[in-house]
Amino acid sequence: FISSITSSEAISANRGIVNKGTLTFTNTSENATDMYGTGTSICNEGTLNINGTFKIITSGKDGTTTLQKRLGIQNTATGVVNINSSTAEISYCGYRGILNNGTLNMKGGKIHHCAVSDTTSENGGGIVHSGDSSVFTMSGGSIYNNEAYKGAGVYFSTAGKASKITGGSIYNNTGSYGAGITTYRTNGLTISGGNIYKNSASI
Q1: What string of DSSP letters covers 142-178?
Q2: Residue 85 and residue 189: Cα distance in Å, rounded?
Q3: Higher pLDDT, 40 or 63
Q4: Which of 57, 65, 86, 164 is most buried, taking the most CB atoms under 10 A from its CB?
Q5: C-alpha–C-alpha distance, residues 127 and 96, integer Å
Q6: Shortest CA distance to 127 belongs to which of 181, 79, 175, 168?
Q7: Which of 4, 3, 62 is nearest to 31 (CA)?
Q8: Which residues of 128-143 are buried (b: 16+ CB within 10 A; e: fewer)?
Q9: In angstroms, rounded to a whole number, what is the distance separating the alpha carbons of residues 190 and 56?
């Protein structure tokens, strides 16, 4: 049983980590969560707290290698993910940064250069919210340089609960429709702060 990770360790597996309890990352070193291969880096069914330095980079540290079809974090319906750190980073994921079916609270961090494998038909590059239990709050951090067909930054598919954006930035995302944010089926999204700018949609 692991409740916290603070040391440097590279993880390579179909599911690098499956959390069903409470797991906290605190001030991990640069390589502590560099995860490679296909599948899901972290599957969260409990509470995942991200504090301090944290990185998921699925295609290589410099981002120059070919994107692999790997999901950064899969948050299930019972899961709660708290991104509390300004130095948290999820990047170069070959299949979305975060798939959220539960509760995602983004107070800081960066989600960038994540792309679906087919940007002509697949939605959500940075974050996808789906399911009756999904809810998203963003008060800080940034989502940028992601690619998808719709909602390259953030895509709300069937989000079941009202979500809120009160801070942070969503910018430089690229897609065919609603490059920054796309809402398809949701019980409400309130935007009362933050910055959404320079997102590029071809249609």
Answers
A1: EEES-B-SB-SSEEEEEE-S-EEE-S-EEES-EESB-
A2: 24
A3: 40
A4: 57
A5: 6
A6: 181
A7: 62
A8: bbbbebbbbbbebbbb
A9: 29
DSSP string, 51-111: ESSEEEESS-TTS-SPPPSEEEEEE-TT-EEEE--TTEEEE--TT-SEEESSEEEESS-EE
Residue 109, pLDDT above cutoff 80? yes
Q: What is the pLDDT of residue 102?
A: 95
DSSP result, 2-19: -SEE-S---EESSEEEEE
Contacts of 194 (CB under 8 A, 6+ apart): 138, 165, 166, 167, 168, 169, 170
Q: Which two tokens stand for residue 77?
A: 């319906």
If we measure between CA atoms, which residue out of 85, 6, 73 comes closest to residue 46?
Answer: 73
pLDDT band at 164 (very low <50, low <70, confident <90, very high): very high
Give the residue among 164, 153, 27, 140 at the shortest CA–CA distance from 83: 140
List of residues 6+ apart from 167 with CB closer than 8 A? 138, 139, 140, 193, 194
DSSP three-state, residue 182: strand
SS (H, E, C) 110-139: EEECCECCCCCCCCCCCEEECCCCCEEEEC
| Interatomic CA distance for residues 143 and 154, integer angstroms | 8
